[in-house]
Amino acid sequence: MFNPIGWFKPEIAQAHCDVPCGIYDPFSAKIAAQTVQKMVLRIQALAPADQNDAAARQDYVNKIARYVTVKEEHAEICKHELSVLWADYAWPNLRADFDLHGTFNAALKLAGRCKQTVDMAACEELVASVDNIAAAFWATKNVEYSDPNAAARYGS
């Protein structure tokens, strides 16, 4: 029996539509940036393990591995979310004084630096950069940006 499907094998399609509904929000980039910042805080606060205590060493290794993994994953999420917002949002009525491309380029590089290092100053700068982008984004919708829950969400 003739089987036309056997002649060619359909491949699984890979596509990314980047929010076809047109709903954009820099909030997910902010959450990712704060997560990076929190992981750096935890890495810096983690006391070295007692080398004579195998359980303490293993606990330290597990924690540092998890913190670093989460930090790097969320730095990449932040980069992705910013890239989508930069490339796909139309940016209508953008403030004349806002350097769209320079601001996003700097924020993406900063997220990369936060991914590669354990630098709290860079993390704070990344969160501030995302806030700056969020303020510009919401201004295009005639909304004043604020994140009143940022400190509570970040916690101690």
How would you sum up this structure, described in words?
The protein is mostly helical and 156 residues long. The protein has a single domain (23-145), classed as Four Helix Bundle (Hemerythrin (Met), subunit A), CATH 1.20.120.400. It has helices at residues 27-45, 54-88, 100-116, 120-139, 150-154.
Spell out the blueprint of helices and strands.
Blueprint: H1 27-45, H2 54-88, H3 100-116, H4 120-139, H5 150-154
Report the CATH architecture. Answer: Up-down Bundle
In sequence order, what are the helices and strands, one letter per element? HHHHH
How far the N terminus sits from the C terminus, by CA atoms, comes to 69 Å
- Number of helices in the DSSP assignment: 5
Query: Level of helix content?
Result: 55-70%
CATH class designation: Mainly Alpha
Q: List the domain count as a whole number.
A: 1
How would you describe this structure in keywords?
mainly alpha; 0% strand; single chain; Four Helix Bundle (Hemerythrin (Met), subunit A); 156 residues; 5 helices
In short:
The protein is mainly alpha-helical and 156 residues long. The protein has helices at 27-45, 54-88, 100-116, 120-139, 150-154. The mean pLDDT is 91.
